[in-house]
Description:
This protein is α/β, with parallel strands linked by helices.
Amino acid sequence: EQFIVLQDKINTKPDDVAMPVLPIVLFCNLGVGATSIIANYPSRKPLTFKPEQTVNAIMKNKVNRITCSPYFAKRIAMHCISKNLALPHLKNVFTGGAPVFPDEAALYNSAFPQTDVQIVYGSTEAEPISSISSKTLVKEGSLEKGLRVGKIYYKTELKIIQIKNGPIKINSLEGLNKLTLGHGEIGEIIVAGDHVLKSYYKNPSAWKENKIPIGTKVWHRTGDSGFLNEDGELFLCGRVKQLIKQDQKNYLSPFVIEGLLQQIKGINIGTIIKHQNELKIFIETNDGNLSDDLRERILKFLPVSTKEIKVVREIPRDPRHHSKIDYAKLKLLDA
């Protein structure tokens, strides 16, 4: 079922020359008989990636589609811009596995102006959930409440439910509907569909924590928070566990703060955490310093009431995509 929906979404043809940086897409390419060019990408040590050789391979082999993580796409885009290189054969880029904010989408548009770049939201258990083009994200991607990730894929059922700690023990559609929130309300994203995995291999505790069986249907808890607008578009607000509760109904989203911080010139990446009962902003700057001007711009731009801003040499990221912040390691830096 995952093969069927990924083919439906990515639509690889036998005469395509593709660069699949994500292993599952390599299998899909093999399934339809397309040519796959393997990128010289050190997935376990992404920081050591040197894009020049890979861009040369894309140009030499006339690669017309790439499926990759946002970090890979960003490095390829930055290299093409810095060297003034064009990739005229590249028709499609699909990227996912980590959030893409509007400023990064603008980078894709600049590097690949003739390419259809689709940012796909999903998870290991449910791929795809939704998608949005980089051009739409740049045009309409306001970060007022959450990150726009587009229309729900038509074979995916999706609900936003109340945030609950621990397993959810309900066994009826009526019970699920009572948990379901309305448009604009932030809650946990759950999904169902033929391509959504219904179990885990020899891991009953993971099943209990992440699945909600209702009759013959199994809903998957993504662990992500978000909301739907009135047009049925999905907006992400980050991991449920990272939300900072303000009152009974309202949450502060570090994820949204991260997107806003990325828009401030001089900041590479930043976030906000609640540690030892205090809100603290952590940033990684271009020069490793926090000037008075930068501090003023941060406090003026962010919708939070904290003056605790700390500069760290490098904010820890996940080892897989080097895009998501490792909050546990970040808190250790503040110990």
